[in-house]
């Protein structure tokens, strides 16, 4: 079972993209599209004040008749951001994400932002672990070491 710190080390791009709460939603959507990501942490100085996702845009801008060019991110962001620590296991993250219907979790280490993991990162890690176990069992069955 891997922990979040190990998962972060295996990510090809470990950058965390952020946006200010006063930025317009259109800027958040453009940044997510450019980077091929589904969420941005909303930061004021070094503090996480929220998270904004494509889902927030669809449900809180489009469906409510707002405009992305006029609406600030602070009006649609989720302010109660759950997070994990580097020693949290992938299974604990999956449980937290499933129970709370989340797709992204910031990683906080000693009070500082250390990364962001997605449900995709966890699924990839779990599949990799299972593949390793399968290979080990195959070697055992064939009598190899």
Uncertain spans: none
Order of strands side by side in the largest beta sheet?
1-2-3
User: How many DSSP H or I helices?
Assistant: 5
- From the N-terminal CA to the C-terminal CA, the straight-line distance is 21 Å
| Assembly category | single chain
Summarize the SSE layout with pairings.
Layout: H1 4-10, E1 18-19, H2 25-35, E2 39-44, E3 47-53, H3 54-62, H4 90-100, E4 104-109, E5 112-118, H5 119-142
Question: What are the defining features of this structure?
Answer:
145 residues, three-stranded mixed beta sheet, alpha+beta
Compact overview of the structure:
Helix content is 43%, strand content 19%. It has helices at 4-10, 25-35, 54-62, 90-100, 119-142, and strands spanning 18-19, 39-44, 47-53, 104-109, 112-118.
Question: What report would you give on this structure?
Answer:
It is a single chain. The mean pLDDT is 92. The strands form two sheets. The protein has a three-stranded mixed sheet. Strands 4-5 form a two-stranded antiparallel ribbon. Helices cover 43% and strands 19% of the residues. Strand 2 and strand 3 form a beta hairpin. The chain is of the alpha+beta class and 145 residues long. The two termini are 21 Å apart. The chain has helices at residues 4-10, 25-35, 54-62, 90-100, 119-142; strands at residues 18-19, 39-44, 47-53, 104-109, 112-118. The longest helix is centred in the C-terminal third of the chain and has 24 residues, at 119-142.
């Amino acid at each position: 079972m891997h922990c979040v710190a190990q998962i972060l080390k295996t990510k090809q791009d470990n950058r965390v993209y952020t946006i200010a709460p006063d930025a317009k939603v259109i800027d958040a959507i453009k940044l997510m599209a450019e980077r091929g990501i589904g969420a941005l942490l909303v930061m004021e100085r070094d503090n996480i004040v929220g998270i904004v996702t494509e889902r927030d845009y669809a449900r809180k801008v489009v469906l409510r008749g707002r405009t992305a060019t006029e609406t600030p991110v602070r009006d649609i962001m989720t302010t109660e951001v759950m997070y994990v620590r580097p020693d949290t296991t992938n299974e604990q993250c999956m449980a937290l994400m499933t129970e709370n219907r989340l797709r992204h979790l910031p990683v906080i280490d000693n009070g500082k932002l250390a990364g962001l993991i997605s449900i995709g990162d966890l699924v990839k890690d779990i599949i990799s672990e299972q593949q390793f176990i399968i290979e080990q069992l195959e070697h055992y069955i064939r009598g190899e070491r």
